Structures are given as structure tokens and as C-alpha cells.
Inverse folding.
């Protein structure tokens, strides 16, 4: 947020449309229950896949609004169940975030923050003001981590553990398609769950002007298989996984329910079209898949498991 003039905030375009602040169409089948904010500051981080340093995130645009105007629109919006604040890396980020959280506290809506790894001291400042803390692991491969993220895996894991100790309710994003294999994803999910954090899956989305702009998205079959593995693990059902050279080749799909293929993360977070183009493929369903979609998801997973 700026020091002079009106304070500004960025909203995801979907949230801005839902709030009546931008023009555009929304899929009427999708309820916008979580509103996505982003602190209005350039990110000084160097994640190879991310465009936050350029003022966008994934392929979503984040128009800028006066904070006061945005808060008024949020208070009028009847369907809000959560607000999530995306936080770029910059020196005064925690100060700005704390101010914003205090501004939002009057709305009585559960707040999530998606932050870089922070010290326990900083986490303790933020924890009382939020419902959940999100600290992304993003990359499941230990060897690729530092190269892709620009900081250390240990620092990230320590901060996730500290957030669990301090707050209890913690989400950690994992991106499928950064060069990791399926076994690394399985291990990362087990480690996050063991530490008390909930893994949220994202599909890698290539973005212009990033180091990974020419990399491929994950295949839909692989994504469905990992969503199935995630669903079983997070519901404490033994997935009976088998791997060959790091690739998942077998999984017990008996316990799979439709919500396995929906967006995963904090309660009410459905991130419509965050990873996908409107014409598909839909990696994370922002609503429950219908009969045909569910059957297709299962077939896609099965097609991968060989
Ligand atoms: S899962 Fe959703 S609400 Fe939670 S931190 Fe991630 S984007 Fe925000």
C-alpha cells in the first residue's frame, strides 16, 4: 500500500467482477465465495514460474482499486465466506499486510494470507488477525527447489512448521509441473500433512516473460492421478500407491469422490479459472463436477496409471 494519496489494493479480476467493480462475465454455475486481494507492490522475489514481480499472478489480471472503494464493495457483497490476500515479497510487506488485516477485521469474514516464509516473530504479529496462514512450498523436488524459488527449502519448511505451531490452521500450495516426479509430490504431501499443514494443488501455468514461459502444462491425466492421490491422503484413506522410476503407476481409486477434482485449499477457496482457460481443460473444478465430468476425470486418472 502507498504511503501518500489514497491507499490502493489489487483484486483478482473475478473478484472485481463479482463485487461490481469491473465489467465482465462470470460463469453463473460458479459461486464466488472467496474474494482474492493482492497487496499493491512489486514483488522482488525470483520464482521461475511466477509473474508476481510484474504485477500479475498466474494468468489472472489484478486491477487496482482504492482500498476504501474495495472495502465498501466487499461489505455489500452477501456471498463472501473468505478473503485471501496474496502477498508479494518486499521489505515492508508485513507492515502493509498488518494494516490491511486491521482494516478488514470489521467485516467479520475469515481471512487467509498467502505469504512467503517469515520468521516466527513476524508470524506471531499476523496470526491473531487471520483465520489461516498460507505458505507455499510450490516445488516438491528438493533438488530443484532453491533454483526455482530463489530461496532455501529449509527456510520454507521451518516457516511452515512455525506457522503450524503458532496458528494451527496452515495451507501450503504445491504446483504440479515444475519438473518434479510423482514420488516427490507424494513425499511432499506426506511431509506437509505430517507437519500439520494442508496441501493445496495447483497446475503449472506457463506465463510470458517468466523463465518457465516455454514449459508445458502438466497433462490432464497426470493431474487427475495426483488429485486422486491428494484426495485419498487428505481423507486418511490408504491410496496403496505404486511407483516406477518416480512415476505413479497404480492407485486404489475406490474411495474417490467428486470433490477430489475440485479446487483444494482453504475452506470456500475455489479460484475459478486460476489455472485454466475458459474452454478447458479444467484442472481444478470450482464447483462439483457433474456425472459426465466425474466419469471423465476418473478415466483420465486411469489412463495415466500404467
Ligand atoms: S488455498 Fe486459496 S484461500 Fe488458501 S491461501 Fe491458497 S489461494 Fe488463499
Amino acid at each position: 500500500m502507498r504511503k501518500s494519496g489514497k491507499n490502493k489494493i489489487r483484486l483478482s479480476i473475478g473478484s472485481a467482477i463479482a463485487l461490481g467493480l469491473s465489467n465482465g462475465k462470470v460463469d453463473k454455475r460458479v459461486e464466488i465465495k472467496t474474494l482474492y486481494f493482492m497487496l499493491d507492490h512489486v514483488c522482488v522475489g525470483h520464482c521461475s514460474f511466477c509473474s508476481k514481480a510484474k504485477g500479475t499472478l498466474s494468468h489472472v489480471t489484478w486491477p487496482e482499486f482504492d482500498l476504501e472503494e474495495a472495502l465498501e464493495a466487499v461489505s455489500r457483497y452477501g456471498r463472501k465466506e473468505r478473503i485471501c490476500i496474496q502477498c508479494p515479497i518486499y521489505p515492508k510487506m508485513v507492515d502493509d499486510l498488518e494494516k490491511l488485516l486491521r482494516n478488514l477485521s470489521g467485516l467479520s469474514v475469515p481471512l487467509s494470507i498467502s505469504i512467503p516464509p517469515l520468521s516466527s516473530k513476524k508470524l506471531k504479529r499476523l496470526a491473531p488477525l487471520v483465520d489461516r496462514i498460507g505458505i507455499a512450498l510450490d516445488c516438491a523436488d528438493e533438488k530443484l527447489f532453491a533454483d526455482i524459488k530463489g530461496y532455501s527449502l529449509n527456510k520454507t519448511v521451518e516457516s511452515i512448521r512455525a506457522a503450524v505451531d503458532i496458528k494451527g490452521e496452515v495451507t501450503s500450495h504445491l504446483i504440479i509441473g515444475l519438473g518434479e516426479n510423482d514420488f516427490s509430490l507424494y513425499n511432499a504431501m506426506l511431509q506437509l500433512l505430517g507437519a500439520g499443514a494442508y496441501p493445496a494443488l495447483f497446475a503449472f501455468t506457463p506465463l510470458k516473460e517468466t523463465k518457465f514461459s516455454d514449459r508445458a502444462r502438466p497433462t490432464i491425466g497426470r493431474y487427475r492421478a495426483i488429485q486422486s492421490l491428494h484426495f485419498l491422503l487428505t481423507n486418511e484413506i490408504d491410496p496403496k500407491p505404486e511407483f516406477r522410476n518416480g512415476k505413479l503407476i497404480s492407485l486404489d481409486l475406490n474411495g474417490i469422490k467428486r470433490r477430489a477434482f475440485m479446487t483444494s485449499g482453504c475452506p470456500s477457496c475455489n479460484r475459478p479459472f486460476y489455472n485454466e482457460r475458459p474452454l478447458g481443460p479444467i484442472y481444478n473444478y470450482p464447483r462439483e463436477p457433474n456425472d459426465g465430468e466425474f466419469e471423465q476425470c476418473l478415466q483420465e486418472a486411469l489412463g495415466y496409471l500404467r
The domain at 8-304 is CATH 3.20.20.70 (TIM Barrel). Residues 34, 82, 84, 112, 114, 134, 171, 173, 200, 265-266, 269, 271 surround iron/sulfur cluster (CB under 6 Å).
